């Protein structure tokens, strides 16, 4: 399955939903920008967007919630090990209170993977981040040799469509 993401103002992004009514878009608002996200089709409609293969997925993306995008640059040689590590531990977050959806997104160009998680609230994410389960899931994730650069996190709130 493919996933697509682009940035812009919400006024600009909402035009995609009107122009492509058959595509189910998810709109999110962050501290510095808004994004549109959709998945499940091979139709790339964003001229300046990013395309990903969905490597691991669980849960359904909801219209409301809090989204955390962990952006992780990975060197080419490290991609198989990185993906395998997520496949081995993908279910650890699913049972956490407030969890809604997970996607491991592999970039079609560039080297920055996105670990997409959606929660019912920022508080649920913070509880997960401070839990023993989180520590266990990330025990082996000291900055590995396969990181091409320093990972960074961006957060968003879902924008409900009328």
TrEMBL record:
Keyword set includes Calcium: no
Domain ABM intervals: 66-156
Domain of life: Bacteria
UniProtKB keywords: Monooxygenase, Oxidoreductase
GO MF term set: monooxygenase activity
InterPro entries: ABM_dom (IPR007138), Dimeric_a/b-barrel (IPR011008), Heme-degrading_MO (IPR050404)
Protein name in UniProt: Antibiotic biosynthesis monooxygenase
């Amino acid at each position: 399955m493919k996933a697509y993401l682009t940035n812009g103002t919400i006024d600009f992004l909402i035009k995609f939903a009107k122009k492509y009514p058959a595509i189910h878009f998810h709109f999110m608002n962050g501290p510095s920008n808004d994004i549109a996200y959709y998945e499940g089709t091979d139709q790339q409609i964003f001229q300046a967007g990013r395309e990903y293969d969905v490597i691991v997925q669980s849960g359904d993306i909801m219209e409301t919630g809090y989204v955390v995008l962990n952006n992780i640059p990975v060197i080419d040689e490290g991609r198989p090990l990185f993906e395998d590590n997520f496949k081995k531990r993908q279910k650890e977050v699913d049972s956490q209170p407030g969890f809604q959806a997970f996607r491991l997104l592999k970039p079609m160009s560039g080297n920055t993977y996105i670990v997409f998680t959606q929660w019912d609230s920022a508080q649920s994410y913070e509880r997960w981040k401070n839990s023993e389960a989180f520590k266990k899931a990330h025990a082996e994730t000291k900055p590995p040799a396969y990181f091409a650069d320093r990972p960074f996190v961006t957060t968003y709130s879902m924008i409900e469509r009328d």
